[in-house]
Design brief:
Length: about 400
């Protein structure tokens, strides 16, 4: 079949594929533990549901402006004032179908074919594919010191004449690393001086631990005019446990937002008004669910660290935020893909291979599930990987026999 050049280069989302695999296994009745997930298990805030329900009850659900309904823009403006200490105008805001679409449309608005967009490695699985969708090139930038924390020198070394934009995702998927205030200040300054677009993917910015405070890139920007090339991405998916509502947004200068609106207008006409209403409810409503989620995740993180630290041969860096940790399993298998396959086949534990995030030998393990998922999942992994494990393991009334070495 004759497909487009772009279509031929785009890989399926490995994380979405894993969700499907988990669902299929569960349907078969297999006691699978999904440590590969990317969404909190708590319920969406009641304010979101009530807000959407009131529109649904009217039975009049119509087209909305392509850049978002005024009520959502107003809520995002207030949110930006609270968390970013910056007052923006409605023309600086666009609501999209998740942070994912906001990033995609931003890239389409700024990238030409062959231009480069740079991001620290390991990176979110969608950045390279999004660059390809623009005919552009994604350039991963691995910190030289072997940590998950890039320095400005790491970035500087990879910037060339084709570099158009930098994406910073902090706290980071897959590592959970939250970059320092100094690094954010440096990267804002660097991009301003080099006239580069800087996309701040802040989707996890409130899900941070150990008394860390959210960081606003605007606090370090010298250029806050309508020429600023700073693009801030956020959304309701993670912090409000509203992944299925598909509402995210971008804040940028008016020209960028206008270009993004034109593009989005022809792609989707903007996100559903019903789901925008839900997002308004969440953003303007009682915020206790965000803190409850944050506290739960911090506790889950601690449990996962305890279990992983007692896992001989596994090296792990404590996540500062998000609900992921990125652990080095290369002592067990250099191929993260093979290791991940082995774990699902032998003990029904789903993990995401590090290679999907640009780093071999690692697995991304999520701690957004229950404590039981975390503890039992890691116990099963230990049983499968430790040659000194007992010969048998019971999962419920299912007996597994260790017939590998
Ligand atoms: C780093 C990062 N950015 C953006 C997104 C997309 O978020 P949304 O569900 O709002 O599209 C995700 C989701 O996994 C993510 O991990």
């Amino acid at each position: 079949m004759s497909l487009s050049q772009i279509a031929k280069t785009i890989n399926a989302s490995p994380t979405l594929a894993l969700n499907e695999r988990a669902a299929i296994l569960r349907e078969k009745g297999d006691p699978v533990i999904h440590l590969g997930g990317g969404e909190p298990k708590s319920k969406a805030p009641m304010d979101a549901i009530v807000s959407a329900a009131s529109l649904l009850n009217s039975a009049e659900v119509r087209y909305a402006p392509a850049d978002g309904i005024p009520a959502l823009k107003k809520a995002i403006i207030r949110y930006t004032e609270e968390f970013y200490h910056r007052l923006v105008a409605p023309q600086n805001v666009i609501a999209s179908g998740g942070a994912k679409q906001a990033i995609m449309v931003a890239l389409q608005a700024i990238l030409n074919p062959q231009e480069e967009v740079l991001y620290p490695s390991p990176y979110w699985v969608s950045y390279p594919e999004m660059a390809k969708l623009c005919g552009a090139i994604g350039v991963p930038c691995l910190p030289e010191d072997g940590t998950f924390y890039p320095t400005i020198q790491d970035i500087e070394q990879r910037v060339g004449s084709y570099t158009k934009a930098v994406i910073i995702n902090s706290p980071n998927n897959p590592t959970g690393a939250m970059y320092s205030e100094q690094f954010i200040a440096d990267i804002v300054d660097f991009c301003e001086k080099r006239d580069l677009y800087l996309i701040m993917d802040d989707i996890y910015h409130r899900l941070i631990f150990d008394n860390r405070k959210t960081i606003s890139c605007y606090d370090f920007a010298k250029n806050l005019s309508e020429n600023s090339k700073l693009i801030v991405i956020n959304g309701v998916s993670k912090q409000y446990a509203m992944t299925g509502f598909r509402i995210g947004w971008a804040i940028a200068n008016k020209k960028i937002i206008e270009a993004m609106t034109n593009i989005q207008g022809h792609q989707t006409s903007g996100p559903s008004v019903l789901l925008q209403k839900a997002a308004v409810g969440a953003i303007n409503g009682i915020q206790s669910s965000v803190e409850a989620l944050r506290v739960t995740l911090e506790n889950n993180r601690n449990v996962m660290m305890d279990y992983l630290n007692s896992f001989e041969g596994v090296h792990v860096t404590k996540p500062d935020g998000t609900f992921y940790c990125f652990a080095d399993f290369s002592n067990y298998n250099k191929s993260s893909q093979k290791l991940s396959e082995f774990l699902i086949n032998k003990v029904l534990v789903l993990t995401v291979p590090g290679v999907e995030f640009g780093m071999e030998g690692y697995l991304r393990l999520s701690f957004c599930g229950t404590i039981k998922d975390i503890t039992e999942g890691i116990e099963r992994m230990k049983w499968a990987l430790d040659p000194n494990s007992p010969n048998e393991l019971y999962i419920g009334d299912r007996k597994l026999v260790r017939d590998w070495s």
